[in-house]
């Protein structure tokens, strides 16, 4: 892969952190490979909405400073961000501002569900659930079918995600502190180790604009306790795995084409259709330790629940990360067959 | 009761609204009776902490404007506020600022649990659970015993309160929208009626600094659906009633004196002790419609769960509201036997 076709930037912006990757432009050759990555801060929500624009600006500043030569030859920038639809007033304005950072570049802003999908299924139609601080599933062919499930944030959903696991863990710890539960002493001890005396937790949490991230920061402790057999922690991790499986299954829109496993990309010619083949699905994420945690409780429950789905599902290991998906999207922007936008998932500028 | 002893002000500040009451000073004659009331805004939480000081200032401005003559003769101001301990950096500074508003006046800042207790049990030792947007129980004799349970806010606890009921209702509605639940169509329809399309809920909720209040605003709808027999809503209201009962029972510290029912005040000579008598307990609140809702599901579950407590509890109807309790506290400040402060519940200035 040469840089004759210039360079592309992919950004992945989530509740636990953000990353920007630089990769060679040109044809979308499958895995993003050979990309260089810089990390940035996590997204917050204030009264004016999500801080996505600020985090993007900061990451682009870092990219320009880190890779000054390549920056001058960047032809496409693609951003996948949590809350891009629900917490941004005008995504079109944001994507125009992104493009304006590099004269002549095209830009895309997508929900994190889209970049997770492009990373995990490498362009094939199907369903992908992205689990990190939040949890969102998207069943799509990036054409006519777009079924979104969850991704509603830590107060309305994000069922089974890091923030959900952390909240369940802290709620259980508080029940123990209050004397209304007796099975969560290990969770209480872990929470005190992480946050100090329970009386101080409200002030640490409610004054923050990244509460989901604070909650999610406790998920790894819950998983670690599940790994050593703590019953209350195992119960939470098992429930989380089941919730995420339900979210994934609900995203498998019956209109999605059933294609035989293997290659094929949504913008390439369709692979061999096979009416009897199960639709492909995958899991993405890992910003939070828990879903890929050491306990196995989450994964076991997830796999078992997906295995019970009717009709059956072909669960594939993820081909790449959401950051790979952002790079893939950036390359598609300058390809011969760029994607069309979607009013709830994908916003584009034209060259 | 004359105004020879001057006037007192009581303030009740919660997640759904606030009130200030003016009453005659002098001896604490039981029920606050004859007080005049002005309403104010609800409390919010920003990055610098709770907005209690701003809400108090605003209420005192209103009082000075509404009752200019009495204002000049105010001798005591008592404030009961949600989050006074957990979300205020220095409660002493806040109480000094309150006293400074009226030269010569004494002031008290208390958690809402204290004013709820003083209102509901009229000064008797025992346990009171205050249920509104949040939920907190306090078992106290206002002397040596102070057992607090819950009151941790909508992400860590407030189990069974308005914000908890509203969150459960909206989560269920989102499950229905996502196709992972099929029993919550009435909740989904009610939520759409209240907040519009589900895709807009995150922006309406996460950009607010009074999220608990927004969640709590849906509790009345859940209760109304329970009243017409909607199974999902009945389940939520029943669970809420049980949670609040557990919170109350956990607050009944065994060191609390068991006194025969009837009169007696914690600062008066103790009433006849009776080792065999059950400790008195009560419920306060009602800022949210739900706990006193029309469905009966909450109350039935609460009463049944309290009835199962061992040792048994004497459940009394509340003698007064938290606002009555604030007035009672203000009168106590200027009495011959004023209360002592407590580092987590009650902060005082001296005359």
From TrEMBL, chains A, B:
SUPFAM superfamilies: Actin-like ATPase domain (SSF53067). Residues 9-269 form the ATPase BadF/BadG/BcrA/BcrD type domain. InterPro entries: ATPase_BadF, ATPase_NBD, Euk-type_GlcNAc_Kinase. It holds the Pfam family BcrAD_BadFG. It comes from the Bacteria. PANTHER family: N-ACETYL-D-GLUCOSAMINE KINASE (PTHR43190). This is ATPase BadF/BadG/BcrA/BcrD type domain-containing protein. It comes from Herbiconiux aconitum. The lineage of its organism: Bacteria, Bacillati, Actinomycetota, Actinomycetes, Micrococcales.
